[in-house]
Amino acid sequence: MPLEMLESVDEERVDKDYLYTLNFGPQHPATHTTLRLILTLDGENVVKVVPDIGYLHSGFEKLGEDLDFNQYVTIVDRMNYISPIANEIAWHHTIEKLLGIDLTPRAKYLRVIFAEIARISDHLLNVGAAALDLGAFTAFLYGFYQREKCYDIYETAAGQRFHPSYTRVGGFAADVTDDWIRKVREFVRDFPKAHADIRRLLDRNRIFIDRTKGIGVLSREDAINLSCSGPIARASGVVRDLRKDEPYLAYSDFDFKVVCAKAGDCYARYLVRMDEMNESLKIIAKAIENLPSGPVNVDVEGKAVVPDKSAAYRSIEGLIQHFELFMTNRQWTPPVDELYAANETANGELGFYVVSDGTGKAYRARTRPPSFIHFAIFPYLIEGHQISDIVAVLGSLNIIAAELDR
Amino acid sequence: MNHDATLAKLNGSFGADAFKTSEFRDNFRINVGVDKLHFMLKYLKEECGFDMLVDITAVDYLHYPNATDRYGVVYCLTNMKTGERVVVKTFVNDPEPVAPSCFSLWKGADWMEREVFDMYGIEFEGHPDLRRILMPEEFISFPLRKDYPLRGRNERHNFPLITRAES
Q1: Relative to the CA of A343, which of A121, A169, B31, B76 has its CA 20 to 30 Å away?
Q2: CB-based contact A224 B51, cutoff 8 Å
Q3: Which residue has the higher pLDDT, B11 or A86?
Q4: DSSP A366
Q5: Among A20, A46, A49, which Cα is nearest to A36's?
Q6: What is d(CA B8, CA B140) in angstroms, rounded to the nearest whole number?
């Protein structure tokens, strides 16, 4: 946005010539991603902030209308690239709801485990980066070491570390191996120590508390009115977690708490994220020990799932099914209708509004991106604070620009 | 989730022919004319307890089978007490697709309406600051419309280059 336009946005600014404008971003170490803030400052105090986004807009939703249900998973991966597999699960959750597919128990459990590992890795990066911006470098390193373990788990299952593209309509690209189960067990065993280390570094850290407590306070009413979800809403006392309120996958089998706080400031958001990691680990620990046996994908008879390679190469039914799903004029035949479905991801409610015209491609694939909605509240949180609080508030909101701009 | 209570309230206040409802999987949908949209959203928020606006989006039905209207504007609402969800949908048409803004009801509608305007050119009457949000200000098309090609119209090559001295 050109600066002349800003003048028209803010008429009062003209009279107050002691105010000055500072451009923050789009390339700045503390934004972590590509976003820009145009700040109007009175000394150190932020009088007004106008966010300017769109630097990373790459037309994901338009691509969703051109790629089929399985291909689009590679794009969904790149939205919130901090917890990519949670996006995949949310996307295929919507498509399976549209097609009316009920997953096998094993697939449900595996998806729960992957979604919770994604939540932990997302929270680790968020907490670590927030601490890094506020001067605590060590917590970031502890968090990143555990994130490497999460990537190892993705890699063992899917063959890719960063963007696994692992889920498919009706299940997964491949079943997991014993090696994967061993790695998840190791993670469950080792993670609590790293988690405790991070807590010991930050929970009672004087500098960290001074810079986060009472900063960027969001009241419960505002959180609801501004459409917040996930840890940000829960830190403001909104008791809502889709895993509990609308149990999907196998979440009703697990016993976990919905972590909430009342303060609504940056410190409360940090605490909520830290405690949520514990709850996620409990879910993973129970799921990995009770992992159901049996097939990972739904039955091929339903004509929704890609058959495995041995079936495709060695049986005529498998070959036909493979052919049916990969020929662009055949593929799936979903009902001509539309629906909204959402998952609770690390960042909040990640929903998809899918319109189907009866072909294997979505006619419209709208993403409800939590980062976009949470960045919209940023001006409400920061006004009246000081310029150094910007990094604390940005860090606590967990803005991922790829999801923000899509 | 049972939607009977909401439906009974709506029937009592609007009359059964003012809107149409349908269900698909677990989605409960209300189709309402654009003239009654604002009253409907206000009523749902204030009387039926749908206090959270989850999402606003739009759909271009240009090539959709058996479609009669061009654009659908979709509002997803949630009742934070009961967890009940409802999807409110209205249709707007060319040449002037205009819908009432619900910024006065939910402040969270600000950026969502700007995004719909940016992508589809649907204007929201009463929005305080309706500008493009994701696309650059100079952009003239609406990229998510179905008559806009996937690969664009070469706008990228015509963007002015800004040198360091000018910036």
Answers
A1: B31
A2: yes
A3: A86
A4: E
A5: A49
A6: 45
